Amino acid sequence: MSMAGFRSIIFLGLLVSSCAQVGTISGGEKDNAAPQVIMHRVNPPNETVNFTSKQIEIPFDEFFKLDNPAENIRIVPPHAKIKAQMKKKTLVLSWEDTLQANTTYAIYLNNAVKDISEGNDTIIQYVFSTGETLDSLNYTVQVIDAWSNDPINKCVVGLYDTTTNAIKNFAETGVNGQAKLNYIKKGSYQLVAFVDENKDLIVQPHERVGFKTNGVVDIDSSVVDSIPLRLYTPLPKAKIRAAAFNHPGTLLIGATRPIENERVFINGELIPKAHYQRILRDSLQVFIPKPDSSFVELVLSSDFVNDTSKVRIRSAKTPSPISFSAKKTNNSFAPSDTISFVTNDFIQRIDTALIDVFNPKDSVSFHLYTCKTHLNELSVLFDKTDLSELTFTFNDSAIITSHGSNSLQKITIQLHESRKYGGLKMDLTYYTEPVLLQLYMNGKIVETLPVLEPSAPFVISELEPGDYTFKVIRDANNNGQWDVGDFAERLQPERVDSYSTVSKLRANWDMEVTLIPAD
Fold it and tell me: N or C: which end of the chain has fewer CB within 10 A?
């Protein structure tokens, strides 16, 4: 009988090197190969039909060790409990259960057999039938990451009974994200891909998962599916994921869901909305009085998150100074930017008489400005025409905050002309529904922009020169964020189109970019 059906996939172990010591005797080159099956000595042979034995002997070409055989050795359909024993270089698999008639079975050694010295492991599939024929269909599909579209390695792809959810067949993806399921019986199955963290072949609520939209695949012939399964990480339980206090009086709150229509309580006291601001959809910055204990109780009540957390207040060895910084990176502002500074505390009032603004270009003090404050931000409004640089001096007590005042501090800002920047004229007419456009410069995200009408011209101005790439999120529910899927509801994650071809943007130049997905 042909042995071609015996599937043995070898994975090279990670070679870990250490610093050499003088006088150490080398044992020679490391063994990079997992133990190999001596295929002609397997008894009964692979692909045996009319199978009646309750034991299988699988000899290897070297000594080996078993890694958690109770979890890593499985029979599908799961009609028997497999017992594994080592006899020198031979693995003996046995069971006491009675198998069903006219059924094709597959025994999977899922990284259960390892090299003794190096730990290299192997995945093996042994197949037999209690009837006269073997199920012979196969199904090939690729698994990709729903966000990056990159292939996923070592991901389980399983076929399950549509009524009982019992597993019928499975395989594991390779480095190209592709899995081939063999020896399949004609029929309809639930098709699921997931990262099986606990190796139980059952999708757990926290495990990364991907599936067909309708949940079912009909297999009546061997198929190579051209539509990949898109794997995503399910949303965790709605809760406060992080809460930290920063001296002198700032509380940062992050949640696992968007924070909307929220109410924030500290030690039972409602914090006025004028004393906190949204950082992102799922995070807040709250300004609170300095606590008089080592912990405060935080209560967050909102549309999607209702949770309580105790926040530790670490004692400060020295009082935290009230400090300033320019709101923009590198103290550089574009023509349309508002000149703003942020402090590490809630601003109560300012004294403009103690703020000096100096134009280094003509060595003249600058007085034609007005100031306004919001929470911890000070904005300075003035006509920026013909100005390229200004130095702001915040003298002692120019800014009074909830927990003190500033000491002398100088900040010089740069005011750039329009010609320093470039622009992008985006053609998104391929898309017919609202999308989110993400810009990346040199691999780092610059901004996320909602595009409500992709059919209309979309221009992005005042961009730093550099290499730009893009992602387009198909914002199906128009909520301004990427939404993952829902396995229970068979709801797919929103599709993300990645455009990795670099657009080189130059200063004082408008570039036209058309985004059309490859598939």
Answer: C
Model confidence, pTM? 0.81
CATH fold of 421-514 = Immunoglobulin-like (2.60.40)
- pLDDT tens digits for range 69-121: 988 898 998 899 999 999 999 999 999 999 999 999 999 987 788 888 776 66
C-beta of residue 327 within 8 angstroms of C-beta of residue 360: no
* CATH class assigned to 137-231: mainly beta
Q: In this structure, what DSSP letter does residue 263 have?
A: E
User: What is the side-by-side order of every strand in the sheet holding 269-270?
Assistant: 269-270, 263-266, 295-301, 306-312
Report in angstroms the alpha-carbon separations of 131 from 159, 207, 484.
Answer: 21, 36, 44
Strands (DSSP E) found in 195-292: 209-219, 223-224, 229-231, 240-246, 250-255, 263-266, 269-270, 276-280, 283-287
Q: Write out the two tokens for 183.
A: 């020896």
Domain 7-129, CATH: 2.60.40.1220
- Is residue 106 within a helix (H) or strand (E), and if so which, with residue range? strand 104-115
Which pLDDT band, with edges at 50, 70 and 90, does 27 fall under?
A: very low
Q: Which CATH class is domain 324-416?
A: mainly beta
